[in-house]
Amino acid sequence: MLRGTRNPHVPFVHSGSCVPCTLHLTFLATFLFKLLNLHTAELYPTMHAPLPTPSPEAAQHSVRLCESIRRDIAGQGGWISFARYMELALYAPGLGYYTAGAHKFGEAGDFITAPELSPLFGRTLARQMAQIMACSAPHILELGAGSGKLAADLLGELERVGSLPDSYAILEVSADLRARQQTLLQERLPHLLERVHWLDTLPEKFSGAIVANEVLDALPVHLVHWRDSALAERGVALNPDNPLDYPCIVGARPACESRPGAAPTGHLGSNGYEHGFVWQEHSIANAALLHAAQQINVPGDYVSEICLAARGLVSSLAGCLGQGALLFIDYGFGAREFYHPQRSSGTLMCHYRHHAHGDPFFLPGLQDITAHVNFTDIAECGIDAGLELLGYTSQAFFLLNCGITELMKDTPPENLRDYLPLSAQLQKLTSPAEMGELFKVMALARGIAEPLCGFARGDLLRTL
Question: What are phi and psi of 57, to 5 degrees?
Fold first, then answer.
């Protein structure tokens, strides 16, 4: 399953001076949205299919993480923000989804990212990286390199076109993923391994090209409940009715009771998985979160995400960037579409063995938890930190602008064995029904005067 492709894409309807036209478009958008929801089970069967039962070893791993989270909740007075829960579920040392050793990417994992899908992605992206380095410095920094596939494809193509960086740094929080990255690069590009080094923290100063592919969506998010007269933060508490100190797996099916947009009292959903956690709402004590929530205009009884961690990351990157550009590639929208009235339950999504569902309490540590990216927020944070917004477009336009179809010419159509798989991969990367439209690319830069090739056509700045 392609991560991020399981949320309905609600079109933003611009208001205009023609009232009948606006009403018609609004009715059409509402009708299409409801029609899409009616057919979700047919279009995306994994949203409703039973989830696979984990192995005994995997289940015990989740037990240990649940125990750790429960201790954290108890130590915080019985309640933690969802951002804290998500942080522990994904990044708790040795136990979180990204810090433990489970296989996450590709067919054997939980989802497929663009680099895992096709070498065309990394090879095309290399053209943009080469231009950024030519305008700044010959260095690349990749955030969260996954299996290492993107790094290998980028370096291979940059070598082929004569634009190798002097250094390729990878910021990776997972020791397991770092080892896998080292193994893959040693197998594929042993002669370039001396250019690659791994970081535990951001460098104090960096000039060159920085890339973050599907990083922002995995940052912890706060859940906010907007009501007609009040704001509340939705967090996680212990279930007082659950005396068990371990999760019990009776069956596997997504639990609608655990969706963040559902009532905060459910604890044992239709998946039969007793996780020991319940939703609980508190008044917003975090001043930054309260200020951000007050700036968002949504209908009453509306639940969605605010990612303060993304703001911190962008500010930190801006602080270390001397000259160069940041490329963020992820699924998401501008703020108007992110907080669309019909997206009243937010964008939170979980991925487990190529099944997408909405229960973040299901098997903590064994599933990915993500939220779509509010690219308006990313752009504003970058600008506030002194960066220039150089471009924002869809993944499809970005790849086409960077010459992905030219790369297809390297494989003759007569060679059906190689050409047909590449053609199918190109379609998945660029089709609006796959990754082409939902995934966006944003460039924030300092000291780059030249227009970036990846944003020559398909400008979406107006949607921010």
Answer: -65, -45
Model pLDDT, residue 355: 86
Query: In the structure, what pLDDT confidence band is assigned to residue 100 with cuts at 50, 70 and 90?
Result: confident
Backbone φ, ψ for residue 109 (5° rounding):
-105, -140
In percent, the amount of the chain with pLDDT more than 70 equals: 80
The alpha-carbon radius of gyration of the chain (Å, integer) is 22
196 assigned to some structural domain: yes
Closest residue by Cα to residue 84 from 232, 221, 218, 260: 221
Any domain includes 442: yes
Question: Do residues 348 and 410 touch, judged by C-beta distance below 8 A?
Answer: no
Give the domain extent around 317: 1-7+17-46+107-235+283-464
Q: CATH no. for residue 307?
A: 3.40.50.12710
Q: Which residues contact 115 (CB under 8 A, 6 or more apart)?
A: 121, 122, 146, 147, 149, 150, 153, 213
Lowest-confidence region among 30-44, 67-81, 411-425: 30-44
CB atoms within 10 A of CB 130: 23
Mean pLDDT for 179-201 is 97
pLDDT of res. 104:
47
Strands 167-171 and 388-394: unpaired
Burial class (CB in 10 A: 0-12, 13-18, 19+), 178: middle
pLDDT at residue 2 is higher than 70: no
Note whether 430 and 395 are within 8 A (CB): yes
User: Global pTM?
Assistant: 0.84
Give the span between the Cα atoms of 72 and 82, in whole angstroms: 12
Spacing of C-alpha 115 from chain mean position: 14
Residue 104, C-beta contacts closer than 8 angstroms, at least 6 positions apart: 97, 98, 110, 111, 146, 368
Domain assignment present for residue 243? The answer is no
Contact (CB, 8 A) for 402 and 97:
no
How far from chain centre, in Å, is Cα 290? 24
